[in-house]
């Protein structure tokens, strides 16, 4: 999922450079949503993945 976030943020940067404002804003918002989903899943896996030794 982090790979998709990086892909969309690169797409947003490239679209912003070439002047496609709507596409850049859409890709940046998708990247932001995917990053927060990844962050939440990462925190949940840290909390639930701990085992006592």
From TrEMBL:
<feature type="transmembrane region" description="Helical">
    <location>
        <begin position="6"/>
        <end position="26"/>
    </location>
</feature>
<keyword id="KW-0472">Membrane</keyword>
<dbReference type="Pfam" id="PF07043">
    <property type="entry name" value="DUF1328"/>
</dbReference>
<keyword id="KW-1133">Transmembrane helix</keyword>
<protein>
    <submittedName>
        <fullName>DUF1328 domain-containing protein</fullName>
    </submittedName>
</protein>
<dbReference type="GO" id="GO:0005886">
    <property type="term" value="C:plasma membrane"/>
</dbReference>
<keyword id="KW-1003">Cell membrane</keyword>
<keyword id="KW-0812">Transmembrane</keyword>
<feature type="transmembrane region" description="Helical">
    <location>
        <begin position="33"/>
        <end position="51"/>
    </location>
</feature>
<dbReference type="InterPro" id="IPR009760">
    <property type="entry name" value="DUF1328"/>
</dbReference>
